[in-house]
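Internal tracking record. Fields below are filled automatically when a chain is submitted to the structure queue. Please do not edit lines marked as system-generated. If the sequence contains nonstandard residues, flag them in the REMARKS field before resubmitting.
Queue: standard
Priority: normal
Entity type: single polypeptide chain
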Amino acid sequence: MRTGRLEAFSDGVLAILITIMVLELKVPEEPTFEALRPSLVGLLTYLLSFVYIGIYWNNHHHMFQLVRHVNGAILWANLGLLFMLSLVPFTTAWMDDTRFAQLPVVVYGINLLGAAVAYYVLQLAVFRRDGPDGLLRQAVGRDLKGKLSPWVYVLGILGSFVSPWLGMVAYVAVAVAWLVPDRRAERFVHDHALED
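SYSTEM-GENERATED OUTPUT FOLLOWS
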């Protein structure tokens, strides 16, 4: 089957997740900077999680520009990714409400690690479907960021037991690394994107 329904469904889910997260933000009761101060933590956690959802949306978009057909394994792997990402509003709100308490920061890291693993499983499902000469496999190449990110999450999770801020530094570092676009991968997608 073609990829259109999978892409449309995924786009819709990710849009809803961002909407849920923004609705969790607490609006100040007065029109002053002082009244805004308690909301700053919420704005920062929202920003981090928004960036993560955006990174997954962007990579998902590029992935499916190189895939013409999907099978059941790809559909289920995609649902696994969406499930892990659907937990981001919950773990973000918990971390925000507790002002970065240890356990919520650990759980947020586990959520990020789970999303990374789910994305990798989706990638493997596409590799199996398209075979050794598939365009996605060629585009991914060595995938250094993809291989290092889960290990940084693990370090962040473990670091959170020492100080939640160590975990946050690791999570922010991975987000920043993924914000820097891989020009080689973007060129590959541009040169090989499949036409409908």
